[in-house]
Amino acid sequence: MEVIIQSSPEEACRIAARIVAHRVRQKPDCVLGLATGSTPLQLYAELIRMHRKEGLEFSGVTSFNLDEYVGLPGDHPASYARFMKENFFQHIDMPPESIHIPDGMATDIPVSCASYENSIRSSGGIDVQILGIGRDGHIGFNEPTSSLASRTRIKTLTRRTREDNARFFDSPDEVPRHAITMGIETIMEARECVLLAFGEAKAAAVAAVVEGPVTAMIPGSILQMHPATSILLDDKAAADLQRKDYYQYVYVNKPEWQRI
Ligand code: PGA
Fold this sequence. Notes:
Elements: E1 2-6, H1 9-26, E2 31-34, H2 41-54, E3 62-65, E4 67-69, H3 80-87, E5 99-100, H4 109-122, E6 128-131, E7 153-156, H5 159-165, E8 178-181, H6 184-188, E9 192-197, H7 203-211, E10 229-234, H8 244-252
Parallel strand pairs: 1-10, 2-3, 2-6, 3-5, 6-9, 9-10
Antiparallel strand pairs: 4-8, 7-8
Helix pairs in contact: 1-2
Bound molecules: 2-phosphoglycolic acid.
2-phosphoglycolic acid binds next to loops.
């Protein structure tokens, strides 16, 4: 794990955008794993800016989103399909047929999940997976005690996750109880992961992910077993880390050839 601590979410998102842009330029037909939520918004804004001002092209890129609520049609204001369209896809040149988001309206959810896994596999696998982290340590919607070997499937959201996400709905009761999410093993197969976390509400989860034991109680902790993960934080999200000084020392002394 490489832990990168910046003074603001904007700075951290600029670095995340540079990582994604670098991979897209290296491999114009690369496969991106994408995340929703408040955290990656500035990352998408920066990628859109790079598309407009720096010629960053997404025309050959394929994407797979982490998750979607069960029971929300793609045009529902709180669906992740709509979130992605409004905050990213409608501003760039990725062809609609290259965009994949789990189908929250699937009539046969297990079949739909198996087909999502097949699509990821036949695309060649995810090159860079963007991740947020829940206050309970979830990645995607893999809630605590999710199998560390899980694949794309339906999950029941915890009360806390439903409360955290109620801000996107007209009333808390409207938050769906279920979601389809890539599994933990699906995420672990990505060649590279970039996890973003900002604000003091995430500090405990970040410390558990980076410095705690690997446990299904904190699904994000499995990233300790991933060979190429960057954790991008602002100071507030990094506040509970015991080895903060070391991570900063590593970053300052990073060899020039490793910098993007
Ligand atoms: P957030 O969600 O970015 O809205 O905080 C993160 C998550 O639940 O994974």
